[in-house]
Amino acid sequence: MITLLDTIKARRSIHSFHEKEVEIDILKEIFTYGSYAPSHYMKEPWEIKLYQGEGKDLLIDAIMKSYQRIGMIPNNQEPKTVKMMDSMRSFLLAIPHHAVIYFEREEDPVRYEEEYAAVCAFVQNCQLAAWEYGVGMLWTITPYMHDSTFYKDIGLDPEDKKIAAVMQIGYPKKIPSAKGRTPIDEKLEIIK
Ligand SMILES: Cc1cc2nc3c(=O)[nH]c(=O)nc-3n(C[C@H](O)[C@H](O)[C@H](O)COP(=O)(O)O)c2cc1C
After folding, report:
1. Residue nearest to atom 30 of ligand 1 (CA)
2. Which CATH number characterizes residue 81's domain?
3. Number of domains into which the chain is organized
């Protein structure tokens, strides 16, 4: 029997996915497991925008425009740029699902940290649950998450909402080998 402890160690970040979509009921189960994450005052601050099928066009267009706006891709239509954009677009389109995970911004920095921490716990719970369903995820943080026009392009008010992560989701084509971790004794200071 595979235990949660096995899953914690076996899970890998997935960078290449099969084209096949994950059934929506499975994704809902995964997000439901995610939602058992702790949150202060039971705020359950996580919100999810799930892009799949033709819905991905909207997200990927917004990403491309943001990349050009913030200078990650040159802002011109030269053949080299067009080629680069086409290849980035195809790469992103080939990923079956993208989930934008966001939460309501809190003015108070302590509250903000609480909400962000809870959303990160949600994301990791989702990653672990996904692994048990044979579904792979990649947790990404990218510059467009700080571009207010990008927020507006996907229908979020940047004054009100904060994107915590963009998850790439699908059935893994390749599972990277184990990475191992730094022995915990190197991180642990016991004060007696
Ligand atoms: C907050 C956060 C942001 C991450 N952002 C990226 C990213 O933008 N691109 C990427 O390839 N991996 C990203 N990762 C995945 C890490 O690279 C990965 O978790 C790490 O290399 C360990 O590999 P493992 O998840 O397979 O154990 C991110 C992970 C976290 C927790």
Report:
1. 139
2. 3.40.109.10
3. 1
Q: What are the E-state strand segments in 96-160?
A: 97-104, 136-140
pLDDT number for residue 65: 96
Find the residues whose C-beta lies inside 6 A of ligand 1: 12-13, 138-142, 176, 179
The protein residue with its alpha carbon nearest to ligand 1, atom 4, reads 140
49-85 residue pLDDT tens: 999 999 999 999 999 999 999 999 998 889 999 999 9
Q: Does residue 191 form part of some domain?
A: no
Distance between Cα 138 and ligand 1 center (Å): 7
In angstroms, what is the span from residue 167 Cα to ligand 1's centroid? Answer: 10
Give pLDDT, residue 2.
79
CA of 13 to the centre of ligand 1 (A): 6
For 20-52, b where at least 16 C-beta lie within 10 A, e where not — what string? ebbeeeebebbbebbeebebeeeebbbeebbbb
Q: Is the predicted pLDDT of residue 34 greater than 90, yes or no?
A: yes
Give the bridge partners for 101, in sequence order: 48, 165
* Residue ranges making up the domain that contains 107: 4-186
pLDDT tens, position by position, 125-157: 999 999 999 999 999 999 999 999 999 999 999
Averaged pLDDT score across all residues of the chain: 97
Q: Per the domain annotation, does 192 fall within a domain?
A: no
In a domain, 73, yes or no: yes
**Residue in 111, 107, 105, 103 with CA at minimum distance from that of residue 40:** 111
